[in-house]
Amino acid sequence: MYTEKELREITAKFMTSAEAESIKPLGPGFINDTMIVSAHKNESGRRERYILQRKNHLVFPDVPGMMSNIDLVTSHLRKKVTEAGGDPDREVLKVIRRRPESMTDEEKTAPAGDLYYRDANGNYWAMCLFIEGSVTFEKADSPALAYKGGEGIGKFQSMLADFTHPLNETIKGFHNIRWRFEQWDEALRRDAAGRVKDLQEEIGWIESRKDEMLKFWDMVEDGTLPTRVTHNDTKISNILFDEKGEVLCVIDLDTCMSSTSLNDFGDAIRSYANTGAEDDRDLDKVSLSMEMFRAYTAGYLSQRKSTLCESETEYLAFSARYITYEQVLRFLMDYIDGDVYYKTAYPEHNLVRTRAQYKLLRSMEEQYGQMREAVAELMA
Ligand SMILES: Nc1ncnc2c1ncn2[C@@H]1O[C@H](COP(=O)(O)OP(=O)(O)O)[C@@H](O)[C@H]1O
Ligand SMILES: [Mg+2]
Q1: Closest-approaching ligand to the CA atom of 253
Q2: Is residue 202 in some structural domain?
């Protein structure tokens, strides 16, 4: 926990201490890593607010690389929004740069050195403008909200469709099934928790689908599926809406990287369209809701139709199977490894998750024809 005095010192790296009026955690009563900094009123009587965030460098070992990605992506988006006559300070997350006077020579020459501050404890901090009058939703539990979520990510991706700058790979091998299979083979060989002998059925679920999943990733690697900007954390709470419920912008850009944009679609479907919980014990509750699938896809394609190429349209529905399969693999692999990666609430938790995600995968496989038809209808 940081004291108010320490937080003020960190804030002063981005704005003068005379500018900052108060610093409060975002959300009442939470001890989290996101703070709201209120500035004094400016000459026009307006009070600006800022988000000061501690970046988790255990999850993201390369914070400068991450901040550089965010800067490249938001600069591109600002240009697009400005060209379209929109307000770039509301329709794009605005990164606040360091005050040059607060920077050491070392910081000035470091890559992306003006985009973050590293404190004496080794923690990284960054700042962005708080977008006033914005609303977020915690959960997309209706087709109308699923549509809006699809629209938000679709808009983000369509504005980035002509972005060509490569981004830093801040999380290694993300959604790269070839790399996952290497880890998988090692996990089976190691059998760290002695569980492999009891998991023959589950291991078969993974092995029997290896080829079709590798075929998908081949297309990413050989360019059949183009490499674009992916957000990689498409939950609805990462989209800001205005008071009327219209999409303002996508936030939480820490995970932005270069890959196939189908990853974002597939992962959104995996969570938005599951009728049960990710770790449901009651498998009867778990299935793919075609209604939610259609709603999300309709919102997504309302923005993305004209920028998707043929191969992307062709594999859009499949990407939901790909991402869900990857999640089955990752939960099962962690169970085999003895539960070292995912936090578990009880001993069999990773196995329960494996079975629940597998049930979802099966439901997608069963309804795959309908999923493809829905995409074709919405593209027409
Ligand atoms: N620039 C911003 N303007 C307005 N609200 C924001 C902004 N950034 C974050 N928020 C609010 O704070 C919440 C958490 O921020 P986020 O960057 O998504 O962090 P986390 O990694 O904790 O999800 C968001 O869901 C949103 O409600
Ligand atoms: Mg978030």
Answers
A1: 1
A2: yes
Ligand 2 center–CA 51 separation, angstroms: 13
CB 299 within 8 A of CB 149: yes
Q: In terms of domains, do 95 and 167 share one? A: no
pTM for the structure as a whole = 0.94
Q: Which phi and psi (to 5°) does residue 258 adopt? A: -100, 125
Residue ranges lining ligand 1, Cβ < 6 Å: 26, 34, 51, 93, 128, 130-131, 134, 136, 237-238, 240, 251-252
Residue whose Cα lies nearest atom 20 of ligand 1: it is: 252
Nearest to 14 by CA among 29, 28, 35, 30: 35
In the numeric block, which tokens belong to residue 119? 């404190």
124, amino acid identity: Y
The CATH number covering residue 363 comes to 3.90.1200.10
CATH classification at residue 64: 3.30.200
Residue among 14, 36, 51 to mutate when testing ligand 1 (max atoms within 8 A of CB)? 51
Counting from 1 in the atom list of ligand 1, the atom nearest the Cα of 136 is 27
pLDDT in tens, 46-76: 889 999 999 988 878 899 999 999 999 999 9
Alpha carbon of 237 to ligand 1 centroid (Å): 8
Range of the domain at 314: 143-379
Would residue 358 count as lying in a domain?
A: yes
Q: Count up the domains in the chain and report the number.
A: 2
pLDDT in tens, 130-161: 999 999 999 999 999 999 999 999 999 999 99
Tell me: do 250 and 150 sit in the same domain: yes
Q: Which class for 370: exposed (0-12), middle (13-18), buried (19 or more C-beta within 10 A)?
A: middle
d(CA 367, CA 91): 36
For the chain, how many helices (H) and strands (E)? Answer: 13, 10
